[in-house]
Amino acid sequence: MKMFAVCILSVVAATSVLAQSQDAGKSPRKWTSIRGETVEASFVKLQAGSVQLRTADGKDMQIDMMELISTDRALIRELAAPPRPNPAAQSVAGAYSGKYKSERWSGALACTITEDSDGELKADWSAEHSDGKKYRYSGAFRKNSEGKYDGLFDVRRPKEFQVTGSFDGSNFAGEIALVDRKGGSKTTGDLTMSRKSDD
User: Fold this and answer.
1) What is the pLDDT of residue 158?
2) What is the pLDDT of residue 3?
3) CATH fit for domain 88-195, picks 3.90.79.10, 2.30.30.140, 3.60.21.10, 2.40.128.20
4) Alpha-carbon span 116 to 120, nearest angstrom
5) Where are the alpha helices (DSSP H) in 34-69?
6) Whole-number mean pLDDT of the chain?
7) Contacts of 60 (CB under 8 A, 6+ apart)
8) What is the DSSP letter of 68?
9) pLDDT at 8 over 60
10) Which helix or strand (DSSP H or E) is residue 60 part of?
11) What global pTM score does this model have?
12) pLDDT tens per residue across span 52-88
């Protein structure tokens, strides 16, 4: 415990500690020196090879990282690494291509999805029917109560078409329904599409 005792720093104000800490919420654990000495503390940060730990009574201590056993050093590298982006949080915006089938119609489609600052998704569709005719539609996607993306797209009054489905990574699969002026809907087909690569 001697090695750890000489490393204890004076307690600093809570606000500055939180500002300096990469993650103040790390759970306390037992850290072990290469000489077998141990201390119970939580990780605060790693800076220039020096590890800052916080004991249960709120005191900070600084230790040369090389004074710790290899498993503790590996954990510190992991704790000090920048947070990885959450894939579920990544935007679904981008250019997609795929195919659809709805009642008498089927063919290829392209879709460009953009996201505004409020997180609303705007979708612009280009559909090419199997008979060679091309149509363009636009509208917005929103998440419904089931967590699926739901969009109403203009065709011609009194009917519009609705696309409801889910993104799975870079792929989208959904159902197509016709919606009348009174809000009634009838499922007529489905579509699938995949995000185009950037190259």
Assistant:
1) 58
2) 47
3) 2.40.128.20
4) 6
5) none
6) 80
7) 8, 9, 10, 11, 12, 17, 44, 52, 53, 54
8) B
9) no
10) strand 60-64
11) 0.52
12) 999 999 999 999 989 999 899 889 988 888 766 555 4
- 158 preceded by a cis bond (ω within 30 of 0): yes
Where in the chain do CATH 2.30.30.700 domains reside? 2-80
Instruction: Return the structure tokens found at 104.
Output: 């008498």
Per the CATH hierarchy, to which homologous superfamily does domain 2-80 belong? Answer: SLA1 homology domain 1 (2.30.30.700)
* Token pair 């939580």 in the structure block, residue: 42
Taking CA atoms, 92 is separated from 28, 76, 84, 177, in Å, by 38, 33, 18, 22
Whole-angstrom CA distances from 65 to 10, 49, 70, 112 are 20, 6, 9, 49
Cα(111)–Cα(122) distance, rounded to whole angstroms?
Answer: 10
Q: In this predicted structure, what is the pLDDT of residue 31?
A: 94
The answer to whether 4 and 30 are in contact (CB under 8 A) is no
Write out the two tokens for 170.
Answer: 């870079």
